[in-house]
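I'll show a typical protein example:
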Amino acid sequence: MYYIDRKKNNSVKWQRGVKMDCLPMWIADMDFKGDQKVIDSLKEFIEKGDYGYANLPKDYYDALIDFHRKRHGIEYKPEWIRFTKGAIDAMYQVIYSLTELKDGIMISTPAYPPFYSTVKESGRKLYTTKMIDSGGYFTFDYKDIEARFRKRKISMFILCSPHNPLGRVFKKGELEELFELCKKYDVLVLADEVHCDIIMPDQEFYPALSFKKYRRNIVSICAAAKSFSLAVFSHCHVIIPDPALRKKFIAYQRHTHTGSVNVFNALSTYYSYKYGSEWLDGVIDVIYENYSYFRKELSPYYEMTNLEGTYLLFVNIAPYNKDRTAFDTLVSECKILANAGESFGEEYSSWVRINLATSPANIRKAVRSLKKLAKEKQDQACS
């Protein structure tokens, strides 16, 4: 119902996989055909042939706000919302507008690779705090975070929630403790929440801005790109409740001419928010079934994270890759192309990030290869 063969569609994910003769389970997009209601709505717009300057639909903000209210119980206000081309662009703009050159910015590792580059390339100082791993269940090291806040001039903490690559959906208490520390040391929270709509059935997502006590200290980034696989339509929201912070951000956008909206790109988000909830629920069910099968079959052999949100699973290939990285092991021995763990933090070379948003047939193929690898290595160790 959802799977689409992307081999001939100029897919970055699949073209690289074909080139390397591997099953591609890397870059964060989905192998699912978009919602037909969204396709039909875009087709209707295109067939009108009117491609002149255009405004957003009058109820664009209503569609966005209503979607997030129903899905996450959060009530955004239209005046809080600004636009960027994408999440990485949003991060750069927030960093440039709300921090100063050489300010300290902290990220928790493992971390999405652009977190490293945006901080460094913007001329800020990067500080990292390693998350605590309890058998694949990662959480914040609050003692380490506070010690670094106390000793360093850190003005921003970049939060990834739900977490990429860990698939964590942080509990209310986890976020409250983090936000309290940030408030105590006057550290602005930049919350990357682009995966917020892909939440597994047994989990609850808490938007950063749902914590009213800390709103003046939080900026949130959200988009429909991951939820509805809209990467080709570059469009993102920066949500800033605090008037003083918002004023600075708007001034930066005006100065750099970066606040305009590509209305055609925005339409895919608009139609998805209006019509796509049923499609999204079905996709989440497929992802959860893929994850459940993957864990059932492979947890006896591999440490892996608990998938609470996103469609990205962090898997530890040790002790089956002693002579090379997990990425190289999977390519050479399993014909699986995943994301290299060391790209999320140099100490994670035995890990890979695996994309589960594909067909059950592809998941079964990957499981067979990974199980074969584990059994062969175990047999070699016993011989």
